[in-house]
Amino acid sequence: MAEEPAHIRVTYNDVHNLIKRSAKEIAEFKPDLFIAIGGGGFFPARRTFLKHADTQRNIPIYAIGLSLYEELPGTTAEQIGSRVVRTQWLGPELESVLLGRRALIIDEVDDSRSTLQYAVSELRKDAEKAALRLPESEREAAKTKLAVFVVHNKLKPKAGELPADVPYYAGGDVEDLWLDYPWEATDIEEHDRLAFADKKA
């Protein structure tokens, strides 16, 4: 029988503090739009400590659904972990959402980087296609800039790549272990108890 991989139990406080430490660096990108990759990107997107650089208002959050490891209808065992499946995307308002924006794509963990590569590539294609519908004189101003933030970056070889012009921010680096996030826990008190016990060990 295969040995259970080692786990790191992450608490809400851990996530909160990693994001808080990263906020100043991310603020230099001046995001005016968050795109959370569901479901792990939702909580970090809500807790960025960032406001719109010009208006100081809350930055709007949009959601996309991408799955790499989840078993979904129509996927085979071979596809799980090797193919990104789009489960939700920006709707018909895509042009008004993306054009001319500085969008920060947010997820909880950079494991293989495949999901992040897919998100950047597809959002960039959508933005470029939308910009082509504008008069040529307006296209430069409507250019979409993308950046990526993850709470944890796993220290391992990556299957995916990000373009050199896409800023990348990580709250912290971790070994290639299984990360248990609090929003995945059924019993949050037990999750926290085990997390604190791990920290004392």
What can you tell me about this protein's structure?
By secondary structure, the protein is α/β, with parallel strands linked by helices. 28% of the residues lie in helices and 24% in strands. The protein is built from 5 helices and 8 strands, in the order βαβαββαβαβββα. The chain has helices at residues 12-27, 42-46, 94-98, 114-131, 188-200; strands spanning 7-9, 33-38, 61-67, 85-88, 102-110, 145-154, 168-174, 178-180. The protein has a 6-stranded mixed sheet. Strands 1-8 form a two-stranded parallel ribbon. α2 links the parallel β2 (33-38) and β3. The longest helix is centred in the middle third of the chain and has 18 residues, at 114-131. It is globular, with a radius of gyration of 18 Å. It starts with 6 loop residues before the first strand and ends with a helix. Mean pLDDT is 90; it is low at 75-80.
Short description:
This protein has about 200 residues and is an alpha/beta fold. The protein has helices at about 10-25, 40-45, 95-100, 115-130, 190-200, and strands at about 5-10, 35-40, 60-65, 85-90, 100-110, 145-155, 170-175, 180.
Descriptive terms for the model:
alpha/beta, two-stranded parallel ribbon, 201 residues, six-stranded mixed beta sheet
